[in-house]
UniProtKB/TrEMBL annotation:
<feature type="active site" description="Proton donor">
    <location>
        <position position="233"/>
    </location>
</feature>
<comment type="function">
    <text>Extracellular zinc metalloprotease.</text>
</comment>
<protein>
    <recommendedName>
        <fullName>Neutral metalloproteinase</fullName>
    </recommendedName>
</protein>
<comment type="similarity">
    <text>Belongs to the peptidase M4 family.</text>
</comment>
<feature type="active site">
    <location>
        <position position="146"/>
    </location>
</feature>
Length: 332
């Protein structure tokens, strides 16, 4: 007998959730048939190969602890599900390439591997287990960040170096935040922080801050002429900061219990238009304006054009886009 099921995922970062599964004979496996048959595999500490499709006699996945190898599978499957649902429900995009085909996830890559990555070649994403193999990089925002690299590859495809690389990275952080807010998960509420659950720094601090990127000690809050020479995970700060400000405005704000304080480089306040509109503008720019060579000045033009098409060139939204770029020192 074969059937579509809804399994129970006992995740490490997001509590108990529902994950897509398929029953095959007397066993179940982590195949999400409602979302392009996205499959979740166990690499069991290997660093190559596809791994083994998670399967077992019951439809319960993990126990909330990293020591249970199914737990990271549950988190990864949940992150893939939320990312699929976000692009489908908010942007009308069916899957990473927009062709209805699900990707796959591989968890337990190597040992103590503190990273996660997307590869176009396998149309798959891979997660390390983090320090001590106890903090897998399978939080919602990291999953959405990595899968968004797949969306970017299939659309604007901004080259992963220089300013275009920063825009590529920022696109992943932007939609990571959007997916996390959209998920509305009680254990992992939406925020403008990246990687706050996986504790990479060991002190509970996130990897990146979108309201004030320089809080990580390396990212930039505003554009300057040499920004194309720094790591793409730091030059992304300018666009992350733009997105935060376009969404929420400058200055102090508390959202879901997190305090933000976003500075402007021109000293002029920015009024936000809300995350939903900011995300629609970025998505339209990504999918219809950005190219491999897009730099910050082009991203400004592309997002202005997108805002003009969505809301009109005399709209408050259009003006907010211009003001938010000015606030991160990207001018006309
Ligand atoms: N996790 C990293 C990222 O998605 C991997 C990389 O450096 N590309 O940015
Ligand atoms: Zn990235």
């Amino acid at each position: 007998w074969q059937g579509i099921e809804n399994g129970t995922g006992n995740t490490q970062y997001s509590g108990q959730v529902t994950v897509g599964s398929v029953q095959s004979g007397s066993s179940y496996n982590l195949t999400d048939s409602g979302r392009g048959n996205h499959k979740t595999y166990n690499l069991n500490h290997a660093t190559s190969g596809t791994g083994t499709l998670f399967s077992g006699p019951d439809d319960i996945w993990g126990n909330g602890q990293a020591s249970n190898l199914e737990t990271a599978g549950a988190d990864a499957a949940y992150g893939a599900q939320l990312t699929w649902d976000y692009y489908k429900n908010v942007h009308g995009r069916s899957g990473i390439r927009g062709d209805g085909v699900g990707a796959s996830s591989r968890v337990h890559y190597g040992n103590n591997y503190v990273n996660a990555f997307w590869q176009d070649s396998c149309f798959c994403m891979t997660y390390g287990d983090g320090s001590g193999n106890s903090k897998p990089l399978t939080s919602i925002d990291v999953a959405a960040h990595e899968m968004t690299h797949g969306v970017t590859s299939a659309t604007g495809n901004m080259t992963y170096s220089g300013e275009s690389g920063g825009l590529n990275e920022a696109t992943s952080d932007i939609f990571a935040a959007a997916v996390e807010f959209n998920a509305n998960n009680a254990q992992d509420k939406g925020d403008y922080l990246v990687g706050e659950k996986i504790d990479i720094n060991g002190d509970g601090s996130p990897l990146r801050y979108m309201d004030k990127p320089s809080k990580d000690g390396a990212s930039k809050d505003a554009w300057y002429s040499g920004i194309g020479n720094i790591d793409v995970h730091y030059s992304s700060g300018v666009a992350n900061h733009f997105y935060y400000m376009l969404s929420e405005g400058s200055g102090k704000k508390e959202i879901n219990g997190v305090q933000y304080d976003s500075p402007t480089s021109d000293g002029l306040p920015v009024t936000g238009i809300g995350r939903d509109k900011a995300s629609l503008i970025w998505f339209k720019a990504l999918t219809t304006k950005f190219t491999t060579t897009t730099k910050y000045a082009d991203a400004r033009n592309g997002t202005l054009a997108a805002a003009g098409e969505l809301y009109g060139t005399t709209s408050a939204e259009y003006k907010a886009v211009a003001n938010a770029w000015a606030a991160v020192n990207v001018g006309s």
